[in-house]
Amino acid sequence: MIILKLGGSILTKKDLKDPEVDYSNLNRIANEIKTALDNKSNNSELSEGLIIIHGAGSFGHPPAKKYNIGEAFTEEQYPKKRIGFSTTQNCVKKLNTIICDVFINHKIPCVSVQASSFITTKNKRIKSFNLDLIEKYLNEGFIPVIYGDVVLDDDLKIAVLSGDQILQFIAKNLKIKSSKINNLESKKEIILGTDVGGVFTKNPKKYDDARHIPKLSSLEEIEKFDSTTNIDVTGGMVGKIKELLKLADIGIESKIINANEPKAIFNVLEGKKVRGTIIKRDN
Ligand code: ADP
Question: What is the Cβ-side half-sphere exposure of residue 145, based on CA atoms within 13 angstroms?
Fold first, then answer.
């Protein structure tokens, strides 16, 4: 099966203060997904199921930041925090509705799954996430679409749950039986589509001399490349890599690709080689 994360940087105009969908990318990617689904006999992994996870981009980050969701607060501040939680939850839900509208227009049989309605965290890490329903939807041929959201947290009361952490949890814990070989688990392919072609020695949006890293097995590898500018790694990419290294630790490899490139998502769903960064531990 394939677990595909579509970054907020791809589906929204992420640098804007006001939420805005990138319809050109969304329609193109929906078309690529639909075409791959129609051809799915070409790729056995896709024929065993697809889960899509999307980020919050300019729909989630501004309200979560405005209300400092995830930071400790006093009882007096709770009424304002609750409104911040409600606002953020509603904004990311709107983005998900728009994405699912476009998917359904492309005849993709998606089903929206809202993290805040059943997942909880403890100190920002997933504590409770029942995968049974996702498994059932997959078995019925649906494509679950789950997204970065706000959730209840045992320690902090409320927290932000990133699409990247959701991806890591599902990749680690979901067990789907292979349709071909009895009693065998379906192989999982983990793909992250973002707005750069993978991991670079430093932020490629800021530095022209950033070099592409085809395979990454630790965070230290980036530091080794450039100790003066690796601070930029904190801008988005580092959280992703940390989640993916947790998967690499248990033998699940993942790949970050540039979903801005036309056909990259289609090709990866078809099982074709696409340029990007593979995250896996050295054996
Ligand atoms: P998404 O919204 O797609 O999940 P993010 O915006 O959170 O992605 O992270 C991707 C961004 O990380 C890129 O747009 C890039 O500017 C930034 N970035 C920072 N450091 C690096 C690096 N070393 N290699 C690649 N991207 C980096």
Answer: 24
Cβ atoms within 10 Å of 60's Cβ, excluding its own:
27
* Rounded distance between C-alpha atoms, residue 40 and residue 48, angstroms: 9
Quote the CA–CA distance of 195 and 241 in Å, as a whole number: 15
Sign of CA dihedral 135, 137, 140, 145: negative
d(CA 237, CA 256): 10
> Could you give the CA distance from residue 116 to residue 64 in angstroms, rounded to a whole number?
14
Position with higher pLDDT, 35 vs 184: 35
Closest ligand 1 atom, residue 5 Cα: 4
Q: How far is the centre of ligand 1, averaged over its atoms, from the C-alpha of 7 (Å)?
A: 10
Q: How confident is the model at residue 79 (pLDDT cuts 50, 70, 90)?
A: very high
Which helix (H) or strand (E) segment holds residue 152: the answer is strand 149-153
Could you tell me if 268 and 254 are in contact, meaning their C-beta atoms sit under 8 angstroms apart? no
Is any atom of ligand 1 closer than 6 Å to the C-beta of 260?
Answer: no
Specify whether the CB–CB gap between 95 and 147 falls below 8 A: yes
165: exposed, middle or buried (C-beta count within 10 Å: 0-12, 13-18, 19+)? buried
Mean pLDDT for the chain overall: 92
Checking if the pLDDT of 121 tops 90, the result is yes
Evaluate: CB of 7 within 6 angstroms of ligand 1: yes
Distant-in-sequence contacts of 16-19, Cβ < 8 A, 24+ apart: 16/58, 17/58, 17/62, 18/58, 18/62, 19/57, 19/58, 19/59, 19/62, 19/91, 19/94, 19/95
Q: Is the pLDDT of residue 181 over 70?
A: no
